[in-house]
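Quick one, T. Sequence first:
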Amino acid sequence: MVTPMVMYSKLPFLRRPHVLSTPGELMPTQGCGHPQPMRHRRKALALLLWLVCWSSLAGAGGGPGAHLEAELSWTMVQAETAWHQGEPQIAESHYRTALQQAWTLRANLEVAEQRLPQAVEALHLATAAASDNRHARLALSRLGLHLAESPEALDEPLNELRLLIQQKPGDVAARQYLIEGLLRAGKLGQARGQLQDLTPHDAELAASLEARLEAWAQQPQAPQALAFALSPLDDLAILPSAANEQRKILRRRTDATLGRIYRNLAALHRQAERPERAEAYDALAAPFNGATTAEPLGSLDIVAQQGPVVRPPQLDPVSLFETLPESLRPVLRLIDRGDLEAAERLLRQGLETQDDPQQRALLAAVLSDQGRHDDAEKEVRSVLEMAPKMLSARQLSVRLFYLQGEPEKGARELQHAAELGPLERDLAFHLADLEIDAQRIAAANHQLRSLSRRFQSARASVLLSRNAQHLGNRKGAVDASRRALELAPDSEEVLVLHTRNALTAKLADDAAKAVEPLARMHPEVADYQFLLGSVWQALGNPREAAEAYLRAVQLEPGHQPTLLPLGLALNHESRFAEAKPFLDQALAQAPSDSDILAALAEAEERLGQTSSAEARARQALSSDPNNATAHLVLGLIDMAQGRFEAARQTLEKAVASDPQLTKAHYQLSLACARLGDGVAAKHHLEIYRQAQEGPEGSHLLLTPSTPNKAPASDDGKTTALERQRQGS
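Structure tokens:
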């Protein structure tokens, strides 16, 4: 059963149940994310070889379903590897990609069984799961074209396809579906324009579509909407119809995997001390828990495998092979086979003839791997007496202190090790944590920059960003969170961090790139709708800001950070009756806040509550004499009562306090006109008009939540500036 979830979707035409007469198929998901280096490369290579061979066999007999399952399996491996390496943000990002792949696989299974409503719901969940949702959106649009029962029902999938093409002009599939959809809608001119654009990308397909177009146009009944046959969906058949049992097995494994993904996401958020987000993921996992006995893909349940802060010593023959001399290769082969006792004997024999620090350090590691920590510590002490600057021995000493329950000694030894060279990953993170706790931020940043450079660590970038915030370094905070976003593009923590950093630094473009996937992936979180509204406000679109703020207070009534911005946005849109209740709530929580008093005064003045508005405006000015909105309200009251000279003086104070307050410029132009000062009136009116037009070159960074109903041009294209103006 598909879990219920509030979706942030722009394809409402797919929310209705439909019946498709012929079996259909969906687009496969995108690639499996951002690979990270594995600690145990031998295991990784073996697994990769298995996946390649298995995928080849599956491709011969299992079809695209097996390909999707192989992609999902590999993404689960990547997520688990990132978790083992202490990279929770990257692990979360891979799990979000796995979530998208699992729901896409589930949608394919539903289509193969002709369960279209369930397929649509699964695809909606795939669309919301990760930041790169292009394939799922394309599949939804394609289904929308097939399910449309009237020309009007084609509008929204066609608009979505136009947006996909604008984002990636070379997408041949999206342009093909758009052309076919335009022909179904009877828009021959627009279809021919799209054919011209398709030709440079795929001339053969363009010629085929043009032949179909001409043949259809010459039919006696043409043009007739919905008469044009769309290309069949059977080119993506997931499994043959005879393989019902195979589909059932794959469905059970997919459901079990979805449960594991949601549980692991919950565990990651719980470890990061975000219990509310963990509970949300637990709720999504609940329908899958115990629903199937099938074995899920992947091998890790984070809930049952809490990782230590400093991992115990682990012998890795592959990395040792690269660093130790050739004379120790026989020992490494024994270690690789797991015969640690034989390796110990061979090492001791060698030490009888020559006491070599490297050989003794390897012996200490072998003893530690056998759990003989006291014996290992003695060997390490001997090594450090002979070679006090041997970094590997010093780091092994650190681990042994922690294993023996002596963290203070371990911390001191760790400081000594850091002076010798770059530390191993988990030790470097542990030292950075110790430095942050001691408020030695510069020393912590030294370790974190090294980790970010050597291991491409999102966790290190997150900590660097937070340290920069602590120091008031806005640029440094944005740069570090931007780097973290490159490494973990679907991490909720990273998306929130970068959005807030960019807003603080007044970089609306940067904030927009992070906030839209955040609000779409987590539409149920009021804070993220608030952030979306804040970004819309920064982009100069108060209408969309108001809609996002309204969603925030619907999700969490009385959401304190949202109340004043919502009231201001509604006031800007002249929705004063809607604004007043929210401003009343805000004032109840902060009775002396001058900005709330001024915003409420503006709403009341426009609603005809003059005496209350004047009292609130004067109360706001008593605590903040430069409050521009309060001066505007008093100026409006003076204008309404014919006191034009007083109004002019008050409105001049408003524009002096806030030159961007365009409403004050407009009212000031009226006051100047009434007083016979045509030059001043024209000056302030021109300022108002320029603000209304907006700057040239504006571009659309976010998709408005309200669908664009304006008719497209004949070739189906609109400029970014036109869409921004339509959205504003």
